[in-house]
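User: Run a structure prediction on this.
Assistant: Running it now.
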Amino acid sequence: MIGSRIRATTSTLLLAGVMAVVIGGQAATAASYKPYSIVICGDGQTGCTPTTPAVVAPGGMIDNPSSLSVTFTNDNRVGTGIRLGSDNLTVPNAPAGFSVIGTSLPECPQTFNRLAPACFILLDNGATVGFRNLNLQPGQSISISISAITPAPSATACTTTSPCSWSDEARQSNEFHGAGNRLNPDGNSTYGTVMTAVATCEPQQPCSTTLADGGTATSAPGSISTTIDTSSGQTLVTQIEAIDFGEPLVGPQDPNECSGVTSPHWTFETLFNGADNGLDRSQTVTINTTDFEGYRSEVCFESNVPFTQLVIAPDGTESLAPADQVGDVFLGLLPDCATSELREDLQVDCNTNPGVLERENAGEGNPVHTIVFAIPPGFDPRFWN
């Protein structure tokens, strides 16, 4: 099975619980009665909409949870006195395996009733998270980070073509009590969640997947957009791509592997059919990364097959060497392909060894970096930049 990872920032943030991070913002235009909006986004994502839903890591576990955020906005007219007091947010009902977890509670924002419940409670074993004492006045917003257990990557559920959806109910009461005080989600709300991009690779035909939690000029620093183009092959296979699935071998700023190149977002990719798993297919991967402090235009590559790596010494000296073996995998930075016009003295034959085809650093006024690399047939890779 071919599996891949791509990372795009210098440090990983794993949230232990639910934390309020901001109050403020502008009320959205809304026509519904007692309107409010709820927007769910992936970790570090901005600007999520029904057409660009949250991208969330599959396979989140208690010791390595998936991270996302929810933003509530009270869209009622200023002066109406209609508060957004509390909300019950429920995880997608399919596929099975979603739940919200947390080990610490934040300080409740602007709590008006000290006898009311805490601002965050878990219901039904984490199937629903209850937010209390939000007490948002008209025009106010609050963004809350969530850590969650999530299902494994799927070819059919929570995909870019079939997102799964959260649901919620908001009330004016800060304690989620009473009748007739419900608020109504407006057209600015988005509940969709995506964990995978999926393609069917027909025999003798190429295929491609794209998944992004950003990677554009207006995206959050370190966010990525990744496209994996797979060549034609003899057999029918399914390609699945996900972001931040599993725990990386290289931790934040680990100087012992990949010459210290790390980042918190990576892409997992797999080809499978239960037989040859498309091992006769080569791949070209394009990653767009929105600039962040410490970005380096390199690819850290992990594979079950030995390969030649690029080593960058602390003094900046570069050399080629066998990839480091870490457990049962091999790990290292990718050199340039011999067909490229990059570092001529540090190149490999990308028909047999994975390597970089193109590096485009962000120019003035353009914060997006692009790197393109090739993976020959027969590798079981994981990689990030």
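The chain is about 0% helix and 40% strand.
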